[in-house]
Amino acid sequence: MAAQDIIIRPIITEKTMDGTSQKKYTFEVSKDSTKIDIARAVEELFGVKVSKVNTLHVRGRLRRQGRNEGYTRSWKKAVVTLTEGSKTIEFFESMV
């Protein structure tokens, strides 16, 4: 699987932007990717060294609109921690 297929999009929220000071970056990743796949994809796409990857599955939530109801899609989130000597990811730095 290519690195662009593993990393779907960055997660930009207030909570995830607070983690950038500790070199923690959050991404939405493909559901079938492993921690090793995610680490390699981040290193390839952004040219940084990854020290740790934490993953979690986000379940779809029940949503209603009038009398119609359904579930939002479920997805996988990865929190990537970079090594101390590694540079920061410029994409996130431009958001701050």
TrEMBL record:
A Gene Ontology term for the protein's cellular component: ribosome
Highest taxon, organism lineage: Bacteria
Molecular function in Gene Ontology: hydrolase activity
SUPFAM superfamilies the record matches: Ribosomal proteins S24e, L23 and L15e
Keyword entries, A-Z: Hydrolase, Ribonucleoprotein, Ribosomal protein, RNA-binding, rRNA-binding
Signal peptide start and end residues: none
Keyword Glycosyltransferase among record annotations: no
PANTHER family: 60S RIBOSOMAL PROTEIN L23A
HAMAP family: Ribosomal_uL23_B
Quaternary structure (record): Part of the 50S ribosomal subunit. Contacts protein L29, and trigger factor when it is bound to the ribosome.
Cited NCBIfam families: PRK05738.2-4
The protein's role, per its UniProt record: One of the early assembly proteins it binds 23S rRNA. One of the proteins that surrounds the polypeptide exit tunnel on the outside of the ribosome. Forms the main docking site for trigger factor binding to the ribosome.
UniProt family annotation: Belongs to the universal ribosomal protein uL23 family.
Stated name of the protein: Large ribosomal subunit protein uL23
Origin species: Neglectibacter timonensis
Annotated gene: rplW
